[in-house]
Design a protein that fits this description.
Layout (H helix, E strand, L loop, with lengths): L5 E10 L2 E11 L4 E5 L6 H9 L6 E5 L4 H6 L1 E4 L10 H11 L4 H14 L15 H13 L5 E5 L7 H16 L3 E5 L3 H7 L2 E6 L2 E7 H6 L4 H8 L5
Helix pairs in contact: 3-4, 3-5, 5-6
This protein binds adenosine-5'-triphosphate (ATP) and magnesium ion.
């Protein structure tokens, strides 16, 4: 069962009388990687959380092509600052599988495999909270991917990482894309957006300001604001 297209109609989230995001209309067809860009406070994190069902919708609708229960099992989320269990790396990796009823031996095998894939093979017995920021982010990524969801949300997954860790994470994301996983990620890193994006959702003041193919967005942005943003100017 496929989750796409994802249809968003009049989606809005309001906190204490203030509109944080919306109203948003958006159709995502599952084109590979959707990169959400925009200035600080434009609503990228809130939009990702809304699409994932982790933020409350005040008005409007967000509908996956499949039924809601199934859609929920087919999504992973990587936060900007990873949340670790106070257990070993291996146990952190096994956890989502064990929650889904995978047997211990099988879960351990898959956990080792994924640890290897993200370059944590030597750290499997380390307590996860003692990992460096970059290592924690790799662990968070592997833990979100280990159940092989159809859709993976990532909120600025490499914001605090150096060039090398960023490249390593991007390599995993490219492999994920090649395997057919759909990525919906926010980033402030223009280079990263260009390397990963198939399409771009440009947010401004809580609204979708522009939604186009990566090529059109980077080569010929439609709006003044997107052009200014791409130049690195302040966008208001
Ligand atoms: N829990 C909350 N309560 C009240 N306001 C919030 C909350 N979360 C976000 N906001 C507000 O909603 C707006 C959108 O925030 P959001 O975090 O989605 O932006 P963003 O584009 O992800 O920004 P950044 O680039 O800084 O990560 C901002 O004005 C922010 O202050
Ligand atoms: Mg954010």
């Amino acid at each position: 069962m496929t989750l796409f297209p994802l249809t968003v109609r009049g989606a809005q989230t309001v906190r204490r009388g203030r509109v944080l995001v919306g109203p948003v209309d958006l159709d995502l067809t599952g084109a590979g990687a959707t990169v959400v860009m925009g200035p600080n406070g434009s609503g990228k994190t809130t939009l990702l959380r809304l699409l994932h069902g982790a933020a409350r919708l005040t008005a409007g609708q967000i509908k996956w092509a499949s039924d809601e229960g199934y859609a929920r099992t087919q999504q992973g989320f990587v936060f900007q600052r990873p949340v670790m269990l106070r257990r070993t790396v291996l146990e952190n990796l096994m956890y989502p599988l064990r929650m889904r009823g995978v047997g211990k031996a099988d879960a351990q095998l898959q956990a080792r495999e994924w640890g290897e894939r993200v370059g944590l093979a030597d750290l499997l017995d380390r307590a996860a909270p003692h990992l460096s920021g970059g290592e924690q982010q790799k662990l968070a990524l592997a833990r979100a991917m280990i159940t092989q969801p159809q859709v993976l949300f990532l909120d600025e997954p490499t914001a605090a990482l150096d060039g090398r860790a960023t490249r390593e994470i991007e390599a995993v994301l490219h492999a994920a894309k090649a395997s057919g996983m759909q990525l919906i990620l926010s980033t402030h890193d223009l280079g990263q957006a260009k390397r990963l994006a198939d399409e771009v959702v440009f947010m401004l003041h809580g609204r979708v300001h522009e939604h186009s193919t990566a090529r059109n967005f980077f080569d010929a942005p439609k709006s003044l604001q997107a052009r200014a943003f791409l130049r690195g100017d302040i966008v208001e």
